[in-house]
Design goal:
alpha/beta, nine-stranded mixed β-sheet, two-stranded antiparallel sheet
Amino acid sequence: MERLSGLVLLLTLFAGLLSPSSSAALGVPAPAPWPAGADVDYQLGGSASRPGHVGVIARDRTARPVEGRYNVCYVNGFQTQPNEKRLWRTQYWDLVLKRAGRPVVDEAWGEWLLDIRTPAKRAALAEVMGRWAGGCARRGFDAVEFDNLDAYTRSGGLLTRRQTLAYSRLLTAAAHRAGLAVGQKNLADLDGRRVGFDFAVAESCARWDECDDYVDHFGAAVLMIEYSAADFRSACSQYGSLVPVVLRDRALSPDYRPRYC
C-alpha cells in the first residue's frame, strides 16, 4: 500500500466531517483519511508488525510510523506522560496544574494535569503540543490524537469544560496547520466536530455504552479499541461493519496478538 498522503483520494471516510477551519481553509493540504475497510491496531505499549489488512496503526509520538499504513500519532494533550515529569518540571512547570503548590494528579495513571485555566496558558500549551504534532507530521504520521480530553473531570473543580473546549480549538487548529487529521479521545458526549476534531478514538466504548455517541458524531470515522472479549464481541456485532474494532490487552504489549472483527 502506498502512503496515503501521496494518493489521489478516491475513498474518503471523512467527507463532510472536516471543519470549515481545517487545514484546507488555512492554505495547507487537507488531512488524509484512512483507507476504507482497514483494520486498526493500537500500539502505545510498543511497536509490532501487523498484516496488510491492518491499515491504521496508532503509536506514541516518540515511535516511528509504519511505511504504507495510515499512522496516528499519540500525544497526551491534557496531562503529562509518567516518564516525562522531568521535562515538565524543568521546562514547563508553570503549565502544570497545581493545588497548594502541588501538581494535581490523575491517580489512575500517575499523570499530572495541565493548567488550561487562562488564555495565556492555553496558548503556551498549544504551542508545545503543536510542535509535537508538527514533529509527528514531519516523521510521516497522517493524524494525531490528543489524549485525556476529559481531564477536567479529574481536576477537583479547578478546570472547566468551557476551558477544555477553548484549548481543544487551539490544538485542532495547530494539528490542521501541520496537515494532520485530529482524533477526539474521551468525552463521548461531546460532538467534537464543533471544535475541529475529524475522527474519534473510542477506547472501551462498548464497556461504557458510549459507542453510539461517537458514531452519531463521527459516522464511520471512529476507531474502536476494546480490552475484554465480551466487549469486543458486542462492539463487533453492532459496529464492526461500519468502523474498525480491535481487541487489545490493557498493557498494549507488542507481544499480544490482537483480534479484529
